[in-house]
Amino acid sequence: xxxxAESGGDSVQVGGSLRLSCAASAYTGTTDYLAxxxxxxxxxxxxxxxxxxNGKTTYASGAKGRFTISKDKAEKTLYLQMDSLKPDxxxxxxxxxxxIYSDCVTxxxxxxxxxxxxxxxx
Length: 122
Description:
Blueprint: E1 4-7, E2 11-13, E3 18-24, E4 32-39, E5 46-51, E6 57-59, E7 67-72, E8 77-82, E9 91-99, E10 111-112, E11 116-121
């Protein structure tokens, strides 16, 4: 089973940028969707973005235009470039390998990383 490890979380001021990375122990891109989710205390995990095997990307409405999901096959790494950050973006961010037979937006049956904390301060 693939293992995922996120990195790049940090504390940043409003309007700043961060790039999150997710290293996979084995490349899953030919069989899985790859996604980013986030969670704040007391709330459900929230879908952020997906990328499919062909590189097609989809975004939650709050991420569209500010966040960019991408992947590097050679490095077995998933990225999330986050720009124009807002306090509401504060959360633990998770990368997920979602089976192709599942729904990327729900992350059901997916393999989850341990998460990386992003804090946006005003």
